[in-house]
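Annual report, structural modelling task.

Input specification for the magnesium ion complex:
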Amino acid sequence: RAKAAGRNTFRFYSPEMNATAQPNLILETDLRKAVSREQLVLHYQPQIDLRTGQMVGAEALLRWSKPGVGLVSPAVFLPLAEESGLIVEIGAWVLGEACSQAMVWRERGLPPMRIAVNLSPVQFLRQDLVQLVADTLAKTGLEPDQLELELTESSLLDDIGRTTETLNRLKKLGVKVSVDDFGIGYSSLTYVKNFPVDRLKIDRSFISSLTTNSRDDAIVRAISGLAGSLGVKMIAEGVETPQQLEWLKAIGCHEAQGYLFSRPVPAKDFEDLLKAPGILTI
Ligand code: C2E
Ligand code: MG
Ligand code: MG
Ligand code: MG
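The model returned the following structure:
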């Protein structure tokens, strides 16, 4: 398009272009600063075993503590982190931080928690992912089966051969793998057919209208049946009401996570939950 505009038109300096280019530029610079100035934090949200009512895991959720702004949601900065490649550094930090935190709780004598870490497709497709996970486990001392990696469909289906190989190598390490936001993609059934995953994490959109929409009800029942037949665990995300909880228990869903139990909270507050596990008992 620059060519078509003619030789002597300085398109790259046009004010309109600056106006659109600038916000990204600023954000990326800010995000770089966030990484180097340690403005990233993890919050933790409990995962509850629906048979025992006990907390069995924690999902680590990233936040950017931006000076003068407050906590920025990953939904806002993840796309940029992925585009810019910064997600590689950020993701490695998240993995290390979550595993060390789990060990800190362990060393304080608190009940052991499985820790779930979200992986970006960009991370998952890197050659050095398995090595990074192995190194992080070695460095922190966390048992491999206490770490669960949450993947989305966008990672899993890019290349079935390569995905299978990476998942098998992760399995060999002993870490768990779950499919996040299960059910909303186009190919949910393709990956339960092809890939050795340990858990299906049913997307919040099915849970929110579970007790009012008979189709969502039918879909979640079907996923539950599928998980049962395949010998895969199932967790529901975004559980907000006692009615949803009762319904999930009734169909035999294994675990749940959502505001009904607790919002994602800073490590210090999560530690309080660990010290008083009765609070969340259902
Ligand atoms: P996700 O992995 O599906 O995480 C669940 C999201 O739902 C979280 O949003 C959580 O705060 C929110 N949530 C939990 N319970 C409820 C509930 O009962 N009701 C409602 N309405 N929402 C609930 P959050 O923390 O804003 O994270 C958004 C997404 O960002 C995550 O979705 C995940 O895909 C991504 N993400 C978060 N942390 C990381 C990370 O460290 N690395 C990568 N690559 N992605 C991350
Ligand atoms: Mg997740
Ligand atoms: Mg999810
Ligand atoms: Mg989700």
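The longest helix spans residues 15-36.
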